[in-house]
Amino acid sequence: MSESQRQLKFAKLIKKDISEILHREYSGKFAGSLVSVSDVTMSPDLGLARIYLSIFPVSKTDAVMEMLNAEKSRLRGALGKRIGKQVRIVPELALFDDKTAEEASHMDKLIDSLVIPPETPEDQEDSE
User: Looking at beta carbons, which pairs linking 120-127 to residues 24 or more positions away fall under 8 Å?
Assistant: First the structure.
């Protein structure tokens, strides 16, 4: 089922504000990690925001996710201060590690490791 325009608009608002909160209030707590919000999806009732985070370097992902999950109520409070006048309820937050970049890197390595023999004249004749 696709998301409604309302869900998409609300997700965009949450993504912008959570990104700013993480940058301004939490950047010093990440111990040299770069954290960015890659995507936000909303439940149909707008009561739950699924926030996907991209963390670099990947080796610090577990520590950063653990810290953010421990700070989830403060993060939600900071979000409430920003969007409280625009929304009826501040959604619950669910934080997830976005592994898209990691998987893309793995796929690149697999493709680079392929040994593809050069085309022979016979192969060129067969394709014509």
Answer: none
